[in-house]
TrEMBL record:
Organism of provenance: Sulfuriferula nivalis
Domain OB-fold nucleic acid binding, chain residue ranges per copy: 13-105
Enzyme class, UniProt record, top EC level: hydrolase
E.C. code: 3.1.11.6
Gene name tied to this protein: xseA
Domain of life: Bacteria
Protein name, entry field: Exodeoxyribonuclease 7 large subunit
CDD domains: ExoVII_LU_OBF
Assembly information from the UniProt record: Heterooligomer composed of large and small subunits.
């Protein structure tokens, strides 16, 4: 309260400032709260706002529900109704009147129903009854459809009208039952079990029109939900309007927002099927015409290549005759050539030309002699070249230039004085001769060794 105007010294507030301060204090300190009571003095203003009092045996409080909030209420409140409002506390500043600004409005006791609904929903969800894995697909072309609803329900007329529009020839069976009231759950269960025993339908529609939560409570019954779960036949739930949800919606194989939508989901559209068939027929016709045209073109091509058997035999006979003539001419020519060759050979055998043979032998002998002389000259030249190379590398050639070879008594070549001793006997070889000698003195570099 440190920011309160009353904390400031010598502060005097106007009524407007005081009311605004009270309004701000109420908004900041009192949260959004549920309040129960009886409606009285209800007024619906031309602006769309609702004004009423909420009272009990000891007190009352003014309430306002603005148009932006009350337009979502699907029922009409009346004086004397027991209701529950969810509201914030406030002050109407122009008149300084305390009032509740209502955000939501419901009939008294609906809170307990919602709690029961949420409790059963959590229980069945934990058991796996809502799992999509256990839900079955709806047949695309059902042979017969069953409807579980009241014969007097407007939803039945909507479903039948939709089914007749979509597929007039599709048989429909009604399993009548109450869809509202205390006996409705038992009748719904009986209708379901009867449909299961008959097993004459491919899909079942369980439906009714919209209403309050009390009106739809039969479809929130636990036994109804378990009976729907145990169905051997796929079930479509079309209970209430788009914003209504029941336990039956969650356990069914498919949930439809309205009964009309449930009929649309259960039944194929005859007009769409006919259009699809027309499209398929047209596509098949085009493909068939295209294939026929291709086959005709191929047939014409083969026909053009096809020759009459008689004409083909005649052509082959002419070709065969030509081959026979060419073979006969070739045989005659080959025979003439063999006869001429034979005659030539006979002539050559009878009169051999000895002078020619002698001349050829003389030519062969001369060519052989020339070849031998040429080869001998090449070999001699190579031998001389090798002799020169050998003389060049021979030690004797080195000795002729004044060098000598010194060897010890064992015949080993002496390379330096380190191999010798005093009085050692040596042999000195020159280019032509050799001499024996004996070591008297040994000289090393710059020194005489004794």
């Amino acid at each position: 309260m440190t920011n309160s105007p009353l904390n400031q010294p010598a502060s005097i507030l106007t009524v407007t400032s005081f009311n605004r301060w009270i309004q701000q204090t109420l908004i900041s300190t009192i949260p959004l709260t549920w309040v129960a009571g009886e409606i009285s003095n209800l007024t619906r203003a031309a602006s769309g706002h609702w004004y009423f009092s909420l009272k009990d045996a000891q007190a009352q409080v003014r309430c306002v529900m603005f148009r932006g909030r009350n337009q979502f209420i699907d029922w009409q409140p009346e004086n004397g109704m027991q209701v529950e409002v969810r509201a914030t506390a406030g002050l109407y500043e122009p008149r300084g009147e305390f009032q509740l600004q209502v955000e939501n409005l419901r009939r008294a006791g609906l809170g307990a129903l919602f709690e029961a609904f949420e409790r059963l929903k959590r229980k069945l969800e934990l058991e796996g009854l809502f799992d999509s894995a256990r839900k079955r697909a709806i047949p695309a072309m059902p042979r017969q459809i069953g409807i579980i609803t009241s014969p007097q329900a407007a939803a039945l007329r909507d479903v039948l009208t939709t089914l007749n529009r979509l597929m007039p020839s599709l048989p429909v069976i009604l399993y009548p039952c109450q869809v509202q009231g205390t006996t409705a759950p038992a009748q719904i269960i009986n209708a379901l079990n009867f449909a299961y025993q008959r097993a004459e339908c491919d899909v079942l529609i369980i439906c009714r029109g919209g209403g309050s939560i009390e009106d739809l409570w039969a479809f929130n019954d636990e036994q109804v939900a378990r009976t729907v779960t145990a169905s051997p036949i796929p079930i479509i739930s079309g209970v209430g309007h788009e914003t209504d949800f029941t336990i039956t919606d969650f356990v069914s194989d498919l949930r439809a927002p309205t009964p009309t939508a449930a009929a649309s989901l259960a039944c194929p559209n005859r007009d769409q099927l006919l259009q699809s068939l027309d499209l398929i027929q047209a596509r098949l016709s085009r493909q068939l015409r295209s294939q026929i045209a291709q086959r005709q073109q191929k047939l014409q091509h083969l026909t053009a290549r096809l020759v009459h058997p008689g004409k083909r035999i005649q052509t082959q006979r002419i070709t065969l005759q030509q081959f026979a003539n060419r073979l006969r001419l070739a045989q005659q020519a080959n025979l003439q050539q063999r006869i001429w060759q034979q005659a030539q050979l006979k002539v050559r055998l009878k009169r051999p030309n000895m002078e020619t043979r002698r001349s050829q032998l003389t030519q062969y002998r001369n060519r052989m002699q020339l070849t031998m002389q040429h080869l001998l000259s090449q070999r001699l030249s190579t031998l001389q070249h090798l002799r020169n190379e050998l003389n060049h590398l021979s030690p004797n050639a080195v000795l002729t230039r004044g060098y000598a070879i010194v060897s010890d008594e064992q015949g080993d070549i002496v390379h330096n004085t380190a191999q010798l001793d005093i009085n050692a006997k040596l042999s000195i070889h020159f280019a032509k001769d050799s001499v024996d000698t004996q070591v008297r003195r040994l000289y090393t570099t710059n020194r005489l060794k004794k």
